[in-house]
Amino acid sequence: MKAFLALRSLLFLILIPGTVAGYIPSRILRASKQLAIPPLSISSALAGGLALLGICVLLVCVWDFFETGRGTLAPFDPPKRLVVRGLYRITRNPMYNAVVVLLLGEAWFFHSTTLFQFALVMFVIFHLMVVVYEEPALKAQFGDSYRDYRAAVPRWGFTLRPFAGQRSENL
After folding, report:
1. Nearest-5° Cα angle at 143, 71 to 1
2. Would you put residue 143 in left (φ > 0), alpha (ψ -120 to 50) or beta?
3. What is d(CA 132, CA 144) in angstroms, rounded to the nearest whole number?
4. What is the C-alpha to C-alpha distance for residues 34 and 117, in angstroms, rounded to an integer?
5. Nearest-CA neighbor of 150 among 93, 80, 105?
6. Which pTM does this prediction carry?
7. 79 touches 68 (CB < 8 A)
8. Coil, strand, or helix at residue 111?
9. Cα 18 to Cα 99: distance, rounded to the nearest angstrom
10. Which terminus has fewer CB within 10 Å in the chain: N or C?
């Protein structure tokens, strides 16, 4: 069963963030003829580091969904337990933050205004998904545990006081 969950997690990682932060940006860069590796510089190294940070945060969050939540990042295959460990202790949406950071790193690396605009559009879409769908669904599924977590941890940005409440809650 755990192997099937791992396979689903990997599949949805490739399909969802892979499309948003990989396939679509490559299409944007090809269309604008900007899909060329820039010369090595401090700027390109910092931009690459920012993108790598986004990738690492995304992978840690997918692992937390798999290991603690017993689910995936796909909205139709979500965690079965409320995940409030790791980066989720300081921000409620580290996965979305990671994808936006990755997109901003790509936009900086390729000096692409269009990719920067795409990152902003994705942030707005992520915000709407969180407010309209995810938060009400989590409130209905996890009740008081989610309300306590939501009161202590910001939706965007981060807190300097990590959440110390209950680690996870079953359905």
Report:
1. 20
2. left
3. 19
4. 15
5. 93
6. 0.90
7. yes
8. coil
9. 10
10. N
